[in-house]
Amino acid sequence: MFKRMTESIRVFITDVRGEMKKVSFPTRAETIGSTTVVIVFCIMMSLYLSVIDSFLVWLVAKII
Fold it and tell me: What count of Cα atoms within 13 Å lies in the side-chain half-sphere of residue 30?
């Protein structure tokens, strides 16, 4: 039983090493570009939602 568990751990570690060799990490420029896109999108969405929320508050105030 101990031998089978040790062998399965060894196979797992070997598989992990093999998969890690296939991983490609983004370059610094790609990371900065993606981060910029996310930040700009978050700012645009927050402005959009703020405008929609303000409009709905105004609309509800007019109705009530």
Answer: 4
Measured CA to CA in angstroms, residue 14 lies from 1, 5, 9, 22, 34 at distances of 20, 14, 9, 13, 32
Q: In whole angstroms, give the CA distance from residue 51 to residue 42.
A: 14
Task: Give me the residue spans of the domains in the chain.
Answer: 2-63
Predicted model pTM: 0.65
Residue 63 tokens read as 């109705």
* 33 three-state secondary structure: helix
What are the Cα distances from residue 16, in Å, to 3, 6, 7, 13, 47? 20, 15, 14, 5, 44
Query: Measured in whole angstroms, how far is the alpha carbon of residue 10 from the centre of its chain?
Result: 31
Q: List, for residues 8-43, the tens digit of each pLDDT value.
A: 999 999 999 999 999 999 999 999 999 999 999 999
